[in-house]
């Protein structure tokens, strides 16, 4: 598809592709897609929706397949649950729009914001991300956790991830292409959006309440995601380990001198066991911790070296393709 130059954007009605990752969303998916479709219909004659069913165990895929052609849906079904990051990657692979927008299936991302995003794109921005405004209603764990996370990532100094911005965003074709060109298998989308760069801007939004059920991101899963983010986009844990290791070595050296001086000049009696035992425990603890951190990075390298695909697509379905298949 031809790219639209900046000066032509103002008048253009681009082809819009909306990507919707869905995992066990049978109760919400049809309503969400209907809403998105009616919103898109008002914005441009050219649009389509890509739903990535991330290995749902419920009827999500069946309900999407049962939708009529007016929803213009392409369904990409994974062979199992690979996670939202991979569902988005698969959606980007499938997207053919001049602009691509990523939205949740649970109805939390209000489709009325799409018009504002498109306005910003017309104004020359290649990436428009929605920034959550409601952080104060979240649990203390989430608020402090996210603060700690952004602090740790920014200490790495490689990228600047905008705070409280998630996957709800509009991307120009050039951004999508750039994201697809990143070969890594440990995909941490928040970091990758920031890493590719391009002219970006945030617009504020307040997420709507989830239309059913609960968030699939438990505390444990959030911590895992944060750790993937930190180890994929920063070497700060390694630097911290080196700094603490260096400091401890210096202290140990100084203490060694004290012991020698004691022995040679002051002829002090043999010090007690508790000091020895305590310091052995402490130093071996620190060593094990840092070996663990090294191991985490090694595990990332191992994952990449294996060269497995990031996800497996079991099926791609769309009315258009079904029709073409009938004709041939
Ligand atoms: N999701 C997914 N794969 C998963 C978990 C979630 O594709 O393994 C989708 C989910 O269906 C939803 C979006 O990612 O469309 C956000 O998930 P959720 O609402 O559970 O998280 P939160 O709103 O707390 O970010
Ligand atoms: Mg949600």
General description of the model:
The structure is a single chain. By secondary structure, this protein is α/β, with parallel strands linked by helices. It folds into two domains: 12-233, Spore Coat Polysaccharide Biosynthesis Protein SpsA, Chain A, CATH 3.90.550.10; 235-306. Helices cover 50% and strands 15% of the residues. It has helices at 29-43, 60-65, 84-94, 113-122, 140-156, 173-180, 189-196, 219-233, 236-266, 273-306, 319-327; strands at 16-22, 47-53, 73-78, 99-102, 127-132, 165-172, 200-205, 313-318. An eight-stranded mixed sheet has the order 7-5-6-4-1-2-3-8, sandwiched between helices. Strand 1, helix 1 (29-43) and strand 2 form a beta-alpha-beta unit. Helix 5 (140-156) runs parallel beside helix 8 (219-233) and helix 9 (236-266) runs antiparallel to helix 10 (273-306). The longest helix has 34 residues, at 273-306. The radius of gyration is 26 Å and the shape is elongated. The chain starts with 15 loop residues before the first strand and ends with a helix. The model has no long low-confidence stretch (mean pLDDT 85). Residues 104, 106, 108, 210, 215 line the site of magnesium ion.
């Amino acid at each position: 598809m031809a790219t639209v130059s900046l000066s032509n954007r103002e008048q253009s009605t681009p082809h819009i592709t909306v990507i919707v990752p869905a995992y066990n969303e049978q109760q919400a998916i049809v309503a969400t897609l209907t809403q998105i479709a009616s919103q898109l219909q008002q914005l441009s004659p050219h649009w389509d929706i890509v739903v990535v069913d991330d290995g749902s165990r419920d009827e999500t895929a069946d309900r999407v397949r049962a939708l009529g052609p007016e929803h213009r849906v392409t369904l990409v079904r994974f062979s199992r649950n690979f996670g939202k990051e991979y569902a988005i990657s698969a959606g980007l692979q499938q997207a053919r729009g001049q602009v691509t927008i990523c939205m949740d299936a649970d109805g939390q991302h209000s489709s009325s914001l799409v018009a504002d995003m498109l306005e910003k794109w017309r104004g020359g921005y290649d990436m428009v991300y929605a920034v959550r405004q409601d952080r104060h209603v979240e649990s203390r764990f989430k608020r402090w956790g996210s603060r700690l996370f952004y602090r740790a990532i920014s200490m790495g100094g490689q990228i600047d991830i905008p705070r409280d911005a998630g996957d709800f965003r509009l991307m120009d074709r050039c951004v999508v292409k750039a994201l697809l060109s990143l070969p890594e298998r440990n995909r941490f989308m928040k970091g990758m959006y920031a890493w590719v760069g391009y002219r970006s801007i945030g617009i504020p939004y307040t997420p709507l309440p989830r239309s059913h059920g609960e968030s699939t991101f438990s505390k444990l899963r959030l911590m895992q995601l944060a750790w993937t983010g930190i180890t994929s986009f920063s070497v700060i844990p390694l630097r911290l380990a080196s700094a603490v290791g260096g400091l401890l070595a210096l202290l140990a050296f100084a203490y060694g001198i004290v012991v020698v001086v004691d022995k040679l000049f002051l002829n002090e009696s043999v010090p007690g066991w508790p000091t020895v035992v305590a310091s052995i425990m402490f130093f071996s603890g620190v060593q094990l911790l840092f070996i663990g951190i090294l191991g985490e990075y090694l595990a990332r390298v191992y994952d990449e070296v294996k060269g497995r695909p990031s996800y497996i697509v079991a099926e791609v379905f769309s009315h258009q393709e079904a029709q073409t298949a009938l004709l041939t």
